[in-house]
Structures
1.
Amino acid sequence: MNDFTLSKEQLEKYERWREAKPKEVYVGAVGGAYSFVFTPTGIGVIVVVKCADGTELDLTEWKYF
């Protein structure tokens, strides 16, 4: 079973990306501006963050594949 967590490096990369984005991202009345998508494969987990503004950030640690 996979545990869907972020490493320290992944979290830091996400936080830098998020802080660089404009603060005006509209997310509606309930929030939810960012979706984390974890895709398990036979050799590792692909991690992508999707923003409500249509942009994406690949957090996959490819060095471990």
2.
Amino acid sequence: MDIVRARVLLVLATVLVLLATNMGCLSIHGMRDLLVIKKSSPPLVYQKNQVFTSIWKANGIVRPDTLADTKNILVKPGTRYLDLTYNIALVSGVVARQINYTLPTSPYVTLRLRTPTGEVFWEGNFTEPTSKTTEHVSGPSAGKWVLRMEAQGYGGTIPIINQDVNDQFQVWVDLYEPK
């Protein structure tokens, strides 16, 4: 019996709303808002996705070892953050200075992050060791971001000190995307 009463009340309320609309007391948009039951949208949940990790380790003693590589980062619409984290260990220059030796060419690492439009968003040029650091991009535009990595360094066993010394770096990119 309660279901019948509820239906009767719903029909009466609908008729009153329609009458109010026809008489000009309520706009069509107001009527639509009253009659349409709106569902609340669930809160947006983000998840961390590691897009890639790149590790480079030099192993040239007489001549420097080199790297030139490009990584594409596909950013989805609605991505909250892009984090570029790097750790650079250019130790050959430090060791060379300690043993009073001049390297033929200087070790370096260059990282360059470009937006989908091709503009350079961030660039880092390193010639000394750099501890773990993160470049944070808030609200990156959707599309293909490009990370260019260039490096030159030395690595191997140094006879004078009988120790392995390698220039190296690690780069990883995390995206915080809608789940």
3.
Amino acid sequence: MEMKRKEFKITLSYGKRIPCLWERGGGATNTGYAMIIADMSGGKKKALYIRQRGELAGREHALIPISVGDYIIEASHHRKDFHLTVWKIVSVSIEEEKAEATKICEFDMNEWDIEPPNYLLMAIEKAKEKALCYHCRSAHYVLSPSSQ
């Protein structure tokens, strides 16, 4: 069975021509959305930039370089009834400013269609945490640009 594909619009970082996606999202009173980026082993990635000012609530918080093999975890909820999708990046095109990802697994109606790999469980929990974070103003799953 072939998995569906989805395109993600990527952001090119400031003149460096590095494909990036934003960790973004946050919660409202009864709803929320978050997008987390993890490396190919499910770990945190080093952000190029973390926003500290401006309108931050529920917006873009950390600019993260992406590459083939990285994961994108999307979490949304309504009254803590979660819908989660785990994507694996399969191609990145700087020229077309897009990344293509394959759906690995999905959580809906309180069950997974396919159990996610154990190494992604922390990133999945952080995506849920960010989607619940009321008027979220910070990154939840990144390494700071100054960390080694």
4.
Amino acid sequence: MRSTFRLALLLPLAFIARQAWAQEPPAHFPACSTDSAARAFLLRVRYLLSSQDAAGRARLDGLSVEPIPPDEANLVTEEPICLAAASAYAANAHQANGLHAPFPVMIVRAGARYLVQLGGVTGREAGEWEVVVFDPVFRALARY
């Protein structure tokens, strides 16, 4: 009799626990920021790439970004790349002091370079954050 009573109590508890587990928040938040701020960042990079004057080209050289057609620069949405970029940004951006990955970043792939800026709500609260340019293995090449 006692075991039947225990089983009768355990079955509803197991059902409630399963429902509570299904309603937990996601295990992680996306590291790829693709909101309106990220799209504005993409437009700024494309504008920079479209520079036809000597000053614009000198700026590209200073950022270690090779000239490519502006429409070939695109937002990165692959989570593994964004997670690696967030870690590299935390280690290299002066303004990222104290940040620990994962956190949202805005990434524009321009040729063989990644231009990374802090994304998400944190990035908008702080205004313009430092942009770090990385090579494909996330070695920092330039900051601005």
